[in-house]
Amino acid sequence: EAFADIATAKANAERCLKNSNDLFASCIQANLAEIDSNVEHKPLDELCVIGDGNHSSNYPTKDELVEIGIPFIRCTNLIDGKISDVEMRFLSPEKHAQLKKGHLKTGDVLVTNRGEIGRTAIVDEAHDGANLNSQIAWLRCKDGLNNKYLFHALNSSEIQKHFESSKSGAALQQFTIKQLRALKIPLPSLEKQISTAKKLDELRTESDRLESIYRQKLTALDDLKKSLLHQAFSGQL
């Protein structure tokens, strides 16, 4: 009976977790849809400087990665819209200097365009001057485009679906730099971009808080089940 109750509680927590994520995604889409019908759409090539990681013969080999140095950001380091240092790889300053592409600045928007397409993050101060592998593109906003607004636009369901439907490649899926440059987003006034991004940032904070609560509940329920099993097999019940 206890296990049945735990299973029910877990199902409820998992449903709430999914609902909180779906709600945030729908909020992004609703806010952008309101803008979408009233403004001009412009290609990213007009709004950003766009580049990607290194593909040349100088691309670092496994032996050239070091324990401490310049962060070498990979697709797996983009988690929940942020750059994670978990399992981060590093380059020596000398190797970093040899690589002419992929040098990042605070505020750049990152998007994975090879392999798992559509992960995003904004470069924070801690990763200013970091480098990229060949699976990630960087977008540096020109005047008139707010980087946080761009970040949320790239995470809208419409653009994520576009990434999914437009990718190519059999062995390694990709959304090319050419495709990225041609990608159009709705462009309201800068004031409207900033206010929309602020609203979505606040909603994301609340969504993250709820996600944390539900994940803690799931962990606690798993621990409770293990504890009951231990007590049962050790004759404590």
Structural features, described:
The chain is of the alpha+beta class and 237 residues long. Helices cover 48% and strands 16% of the residues. It contains seven helices and twelve strands. It has helices at 2-36, 44-47, 93-98, 147-154, 157-166, 177-182, 190-233; strands at residues 41-43, 48-52, 65-66, 70-73, 78-79, 82-83, 89-91, 109-112, 120-122, 131-132, 136-141, 184-186. It has a four-stranded antiparallel sheet. A hairpin with a 2-residue loop joins strand 5 (78-79) and strand 6 (82-83). It is globular. The mean pLDDT is 89.
List the helices and strands and how they pair.
Blueprint: H1 2-36, E1 41-43, H2 44-47, E2 48-52, E3 65-66, E4 70-73, E5 78-79, E6 82-83, E7 89-91, H3 93-98, E8 109-112, E9 120-122, E10 131-132, E11 136-141, H4 147-154, H5 157-166, H6 177-182, E12 184-186, H7 190-233
Parallel strand pairs: 4-10
Antiparallel strand pairs: 1-12, 2-11, 3-7, 4-7, 5-6, 8-9, 8-11
Helix pairs in contact: 1-7
Largest sheet: 4 strands, antiparallel
Could you tell me the number of beta strands?
12
Order of helices and strands: HEHEEEEEEHEEEEHHHEH
The percentage helix is 40-55%
The number of helices is 7
**Which parts are unreliable, with pLDDT below 50 for 5 consecutive residues or more?**
none
Read across the widest sheet, the strand sequence of neighbours is 2-11-8-9
What's the Cα radius of gyration? 21 Å
Average pLDDT rating: 89
The span between the termini is 14 Å
Q: In terms of structural class, how would the helical and strand content be classed?
A: alpha+beta
